[in-house]
Records
---
Amino acid sequence: MARNGVPVIDMLRDDGLAAEIVNACEEWGIFRILNHGVPPELLAEMKTVAAELFNLPEQIKRRTVSSESGKGYITFNPSSPYLEGFSIDDVSSPDDFCDRLEASPHQREIIYKYIKSIRDLAGLVGRKLMEGFGVAGDLFDGWNFQMRFNKYHFCPESVGSCGVFLHSDPSFLTILHDDDDVSGLQVVDKDSGELTPVDPVPGTIAVNVGDIAKAWSNGRFCNVKHRVWCLEPKTRYSIVLFALGPKDKKVEAPPELVDSEHPRLYVPIDINEYRNVRSAKRLHTGDTLELFRAASSDETFLDF
């Protein structure tokens, strides 16, 4: 039997917050957070701006198309026939994205405010992960972050079909502002293998663990597999911040997480190399990590 729902964590709790977050990453790979510090009016305004951008003419939206997989504007394709999306591929420099879409001063203001607020939240979660393992420092200092806007064009014909196929995220952490009104996110319970709904909880933000976090945690974290399923014929929006990885170094488990009982499982990982291998091998549910196993922990070696 699947467990009874993903954890909901109050970020204002006085004691044990870091341990609770670490435990949620290990046991579920996803959790919801209350009292996250992002103003509710900003969440609502950001959703409105996203809807406005998606309503732009097709020729304007296509100005943000990228030749790189997972970046820029995407539109409907056979694997995601109802999904449309934009991305700001470096949240420290959103001006080009706004310029290409001819964003209004008000839209720019909301995007900039939202980026700062959600990036601050990611930083707090990262520091709590470090604290939970007794590691000093700011985990995401100097990291690349990407923000993606998603619109699911669900209709009567799409009910009972897939909006996004089952996958794990190739990033470290995902901060998800999902749709308060439309369900559809489902995750795989690592204990039972069953799909568990992650229903909307107004006022909360979801956080899920990606492949890179599993490597960083030396295998402790669950890089949760998830999908979006169409349950009703309603348009669904989500706004996602991805903590991708460091700008100028590889990701590896800190020394505090490696010992005789927990030998190093993975070689240091270059984020761009990892994403390229994952795309080339078409391994979208975490299996790419097996190609980055340390020789001492497994006989699997890089072959690409």
---
Amino acid sequence: MKETAFQLAERQLAALTVAKTDAEKPIMLMLHGWQDNAASFSHLFPQLQDHYRLYALDWPGHGYSERRDADNYYHFFDYVDDLHQVVLQLNTNKVYVVGHSLGALVASTYAAAFPENVLGLVLIEGLSPLYEAPENTAQRLRQGILSRQRYRQRSQRKPRRKMVSFEQALMLRCQVNQLDEALLRPIVKRGVEYIEGGYYWRHDERLRCDSLYRIAQEHAQATMSAIACPVLSIVGEHGFPRLQQRAPELGWVKNIQQQRVEGGHHCHLESPQAVCDSIVAFTSKIDIQS
């Protein structure tokens, strides 16, 4: 893998791609989850690079990408805008999009808004944009505002968390995700920086602030119903139960199939071979010329 970047209107997005690529291969964009980074897909690159031109993005405020402006708190739909700016720079009519968790939610929303740009979607442990009942609107707004205030107060009185070694950072991440060190090492390596004798997380702390609003179920259903391309949902056997076969979102998409693999929410790390096999088999049935 090698480093590359996309210059957007407001900031630069870092990305990983393959060292050598074939211009005849279709492009596959890979979108990571919340507080992960492009290295989330490092275990998939060796097997997928023979089939696609791969680009794994770092979202703003993650990995090596620039942070959003000081008065921006990472609104969900801004990620869709970021993705569209990337697609416009790829000089191609259509792309495959693979998303994990947050990346899956962005991918499905983008495919709904710009169906002409997406050949096929692979959604790993994620389906539709998050939604909730309208009666939660006031409480959601209150929680979001208060979370911003807590962030401001915390950032004023407390320095960034310092870790004495890379191994400490890796251990902390392993405890959070309950995964082996070998699986998380690439993500942590890309997710920390060394400054004056210590290691610090690269991601923007504002990512932890709550959303000010969420759309209603009717909005999510209308969005998912607008997806025109084939969709593959990949879920972990021990991932989020609500994403599996009885999830209402599966009935909102015209052409969707679901594949279960071993693992939990980060099943693409735990079962990379099964995930890659599923992706290749799925895309092989899509007519690129359509």
---
Amino acid sequence: MAALKARYDHLLGKERPEIVEIVSWAAGNGDRSENGDYIYGRKRMREIDRELAYIARRMKILRVVDPANQPDRTRIFFGARVELADEDDERQTVTLVGDDEQDAGNGRIGWNSPMAKALRGASVGDLRVVRLPGGAKEWEVISIDYA
């Protein structure tokens, strides 16, 4: 939520006013049909406005959840850090986060990802099959932590 708010404030307070100034200056130069600054500026302003609208919609529906306040720590819910083992006993640790926060390279998987959907509600020792584009894979839940 904080990252979305910071991005929104940056776009609205810094980038958009700069583009508006460039477009105003370019519009005053005459023929707009062949004015690159004007054309690019208008295009960039539309992109910024679209992103601002998207961020505003996301912030309106988002809810900040503190995983430390999870009452049932024996099952996997939002915010859980989960250690998994596959059939070859290769271990992987993932944290279930909001879709806007996901970063698979750092073990942060989005709440609506196939793996997160398969893990929801599981307890230690449960086996879950995750259907991925490369095929199905079975994972065993080794540990659950809400830090």
---
Amino acid sequence: MDIKALKSKLLWQMTGEEFLFLQQNGGEQPERQPYVVAPSKKHVYGIRGIAELFGCSIPTANRIKQSGKIDRAITQIGRKIIVDAELALELAGRKTGGRKVGFRDGK
């Protein structure tokens, strides 16, 4: 049996004998490239998701959202809130304001 002819033949047109012969003697398999899975972004949904992400209460999570600190991590479509968890944690970790320490308050 000719392997090239069998490879060009449709599977449903092969006899059982031809199929088994092709399986045993088909030999060359195309080399598969290993695929790299990109790390998927972790998302949380809604105010409850923000509360779980930061480990706080729902009213506090609402205040965090309303403060605008994590706005770049939030996508809101209507009432649905989707938050990129990694970006939100990064943005919340940055200190932008707060109390300024004077000369007498600390060194």
